[in-house]
Specification:
Elements (H helix, E strand, L loop, with lengths): L17 H12 L6 E6 L4 E7 L5 E7 L6 H8 L12 H21 L7 E5 L2 E5 L2 E2 L2 E2 L11 H17 L2 E2 L8 E4 L2 E4 L6 E2 L5 H17 L7 H18 L1
Helix pairs in contact: 2-3, 4-6, 5-6
């Protein structure tokens, strides 16, 4: 299932501990994927791989590190999420809940018509989701692929921000590093930080998202005032909270 003989896997021994390997085997035996192929995104908290699935399809497998993940930082974020009121600061439980939260947030994003990877399965610290790319080649991050039409691309991003806010949610970590340029259309990724507008830090996170996105597009000549965008989204947020 995991091609341990390849040189590139040796760096990721901390990812493939015995517990995680058992989880991967379970998901593979349930038919979610066959063999893991290549590394898409290495990170301190998680590593994303491509994997072969049925009918020559490719899926993405995101594995959160159990031993080296900064679970105290994760706990600091997730403990204010009203969906996890009883979560204790225990390392594995925090990582498992963090992974589950990303799965749930991706489902919510799809329901809100926000372009995001379709979540397929989640078990403990492992998340299987739609692969954004062609063949085994992943589509690039916005940071590395400037859109051909920045104005249109920006409008698309802001429209998705509005829909996500109207759904009562905040991304929490949105920037050019968490937006994919897929065939000149934005795809939002990394929803593990996403929280409900009912969370006490939600407006602070919303402000940061808006500032990051506006600053990026401003460098490309797209003039959007972050204060005006924040005012508009705060109204949308207020309306969403009244409905909720």
């Amino acid at each position: 299932m995991v091609r341990d003989s390849r040189e590139e896997w040796k760096t990721y021994n901390s990812v493939f501990d015995n517990f995680t390997n058992r989880g991967l085997f379970k998901l593979a035996s349930q038919g979610y994927f066959d063999e893991m192929r290549s590394i898409i995104a290495p990170g301190k908290e998680a590593v994303v791989f491509t994997a072969d699935a049925k009918d020559n399809a490719t899926v993405a497998v995101k594995i959160y590190r159990l031993e080296t993940a900064n679970f105290n930082k994760m706990y600091g974020y997730i403990r204010v999420d009203p969906r996890y009121p009883t979560l204790k600061n225990r390392q594995r439980q925090v990582v498992f809940s963090w992974t589950e939260r990303e799965y749930r947030n991706l489902l919510l994003a799809r329901e809100a018509r926000v372009r995001a990877p379709m979540p397929i399965a989640q078990k403990d610290n492992i998340l299987v989701m739609e692969f954004i790319g062609e063949g085994n080649d992943s589509s690039p991050l916005l940071k590395h692929a400037t859109p051909q039409n920045p104005e249109r691309f920006a409008e698309d991003c802001f429209a998705m921000l509005e829909r996500w806010t109207a759904a009562g949610m905040v991304h929490g970590d949105l920037s050019e590093y968490n937006i994919i340029n897929h065939h000149e259309e934005p795809v939002f990724i990394d929803f593990s930080h996403s929280v409900s507008l009912k969370a006490p830090n939600s407006i602070e996170l919303l402000e940061r998202d808006i500032l990051n996105v506006c600053n990026y597009f401003r460098k490309l000549g797209v003039q959007r005032e972050d204060k005006e965008m924040l005012s508009m989204l705060l109204k949308i947020a207020s309306d969403a909270q009244k409905k909720g």
